[in-house]
Write a structure and sequence with these properties.
Elements: E1 3-8, E2 10-11, E3 14-15, H1 17-30, E4 36-42, E5 58-62, H2 72-86, E6 90-94, H3 97-110, E7 113-116, E8 118-120, E9 127-132, E10 137-141, E11 148-152, E12 168-171, E13 204-207, H4 217-226, E14 230-233, H5 235-239
Parallel strand pairs: 1-4, 1-6, 4-5, 5-12, 6-11, 7-11, 13-14
Antiparallel strand pairs: 2-3, 8-9, 9-10
Helix pairs in contact: 2-3
Length: 253
Amino acid sequence: MVRCLVFLEQRNGVIREPSLDLWRRVQQLAVPDDIDIAGFVAGPLDAGAAGELHGRGSISHAADAALAVPSSWPLSAMLADLVSKEGFTDIFIAATAFGRRLAPRLAASLRASLLAGRISGWPHEVVCHRHVYSGSVLASCFSSAPVRIFLQGREASPGMVVGEVRPEIIPFDASLYLGAGLYPLVRMVTESSNRQDIAEAGVIIAGGRGMGGSQGFLMLEELADLLQGSVGASRSAVDEGWRPHSEQIGQTG
């Protein structure tokens, strides 16, 4: 029996758009087979944040303030126990920077298969397709493991809101996973920007070493503003210190 769990990543009290999109997509995929769906979100949420979630199922919410800044260490332990207790077979995680850190740790804890790429045939004959070797080869991967983790990015079609039904929110007790001194937050430094995160932007204007320096990216910023997009940078430009790591794209970004 297939039971699926969707990890919903929050930032500053708001569920991130890639996770919302993944939740909608799983809702649509599950309709023909009437598959059980659940979600998990950690950290305090703003009023109305859960209202962005439509569809059936339930959401386990660990609202502890200590989880406001997500850490893959306690979250992987929470998810592993939740999966074992509830018998989930398929876990979906959005391929954000944090999702890419969480998924392999969780896969190791559960001895699960980790599959990334565009899914076909779910939930029965599941195959994941992804480009490798700089896009020169299309690899097709599958798994017969009892637990599968799907790391989903932009290669999948966007999900749409499914009806007006809203999932039930269930409190999750995270106190057992938040031991004293476990990755304490010493200081958090945030960078404000009026541009979208490149993981969510519909348009990305990218540059590399050919821009000649940080000043060269000012032109790209102007173009990104005109197109309501974001600026991306190659690894070489990031390594030179011209742009922040959060803007790195390509095979290594």
